[in-house]
Amino acid sequence: MSRQPVYVQHCMGINGLEKIILRENRGFSAEVYLYGGQVTSWKNELGEELLFVSSKANFNPPRSIRGGIPICFPQFSNLGSLEQHGFARNKLWTLDPNPPPFPTNSNNRAFIDLLLKNSGDDTKNWPHRYEFRLRIALGPTGDLMLTSRIRNTNTDGKSFAFTFAYHTYLYVTDISEVRIEGLETLDYLDNLKNRERFTEQGDAIVFESEVDKVYLSTPTKIAIIDHERKRTFVLRKDGLPDAVVWNPWDKKAKTISDLGDEEYKHLLCVQSACVEKAITLKPGEEWKGRQEISAVPSSYCSGQLDPRKVLFHY
């Protein structure tokens, strides 16, 4: 008898923190820590790592983990009394033992649902009741899918507002050989210039220095082309109108304690986000935001993806 594949495995990770390993038949895998509800690894069928995690990353609560896909909620940035990028990435999430199934037309088996609810120590700085359900799924062809559902469960009749981002760290071979397509001609806020608004001029985004930009009203599909590896990441998103692009470059990297001095060369953050205009929920209302990433061989021709070689399933 052939053994049934184990699609979801519960085990211990670094420093005894609980983690879940998702696996698909062809060899794709992903790892998720309950601390932060954070994806920390996503590998293709060859076992190649597709996400960046710093060699100096802290797996010591309450520090956040540098790399993977941190969840930024209820804010993206460092405004007000909340810590930078909110508290969701510093919380211990719980695993839902009986998650709702996927639609019947889906053959996803490698998935988990994580839950985060308000706790006493949140209310000092963010006095609201909420339920955050995060579904992380690994598709049969290796796509990594994250779906967030955030519900206002306040009983005092109060609405709340929040901003949000999937702070995705992609592993790239050499940042100076990477280009992003899909954001050209768009307006952006430049965080290195007091959030001043500009319009992107290039026919694609390339990297020669520190970048920290919030692109506005972005398309649902963005392509990140890693020339050296002949690989293209295709990022699809829904409910997340903004896209944040970040790389610290050499000087800034040296000031980040949990990042190696030269590691900026191998990371690129392209974040599906809703940061320019906050989302407001009345009691009982729910918001949904979704991100799906695929890694496909690059068919690079005249600066464009060859549509015949890349099929998108959403």
UniProtKB/TrEMBL annotation:
<dbReference type="InterPro" id="IPR025532">
    <property type="entry name" value="G6P_1-epimerase"/>
</dbReference>
<dbReference type="GO" id="GO:0005975">
    <property type="term" value="P:carbohydrate metabolic process"/>
</dbReference>
<keyword id="KW-0413">Isomerase</keyword>
<dbReference type="InterPro" id="IPR014718">
    <property type="entry name" value="GH-type_carb-bd"/>
</dbReference>
<feature type="binding site">
    <location>
        <position position="84"/>
    </location>
    <ligand>
        <name>substrate</name>
    </ligand>
</feature>
<dbReference type="GO" id="GO:0005737">
    <property type="term" value="C:cytoplasm"/>
</dbReference>
<dbReference type="Pfam" id="PF01263">
    <property type="entry name" value="Aldose_epim"/>
</dbReference>
<dbReference type="InterPro" id="IPR011013">
    <property type="entry name" value="Gal_mutarotase_sf_dom"/>
</dbReference>
<dbReference type="InterPro" id="IPR008183">
    <property type="entry name" value="Aldose_1/G6P_1-epimerase"/>
</dbReference>
<protein>
    <recommendedName>
        <fullName>glucose-6-phosphate 1-epimerase</fullName>
        <ecNumber>5.1.3.15</ecNumber>
    </recommendedName>
</protein>
<comment type="similarity">
    <text>Belongs to the glucose-6-phosphate 1-epimerase family.</text>
</comment>
<feature type="binding site">
    <location>
        <position position="89"/>
    </location>
    <ligand>
        <name>substrate</name>
    </ligand>
</feature>
<feature type="binding site">
    <location>
        <position position="66"/>
    </location>
    <ligand>
        <name>substrate</name>
    </ligand>
</feature>
<dbReference type="GO" id="GO:0030246">
    <property type="term" value="F:carbohydrate binding"/>
</dbReference>
<dbReference type="GO" id="GO:0047938">
    <property type="term" value="F:glucose-6-phosphate 1-epimerase activity"/>
</dbReference>
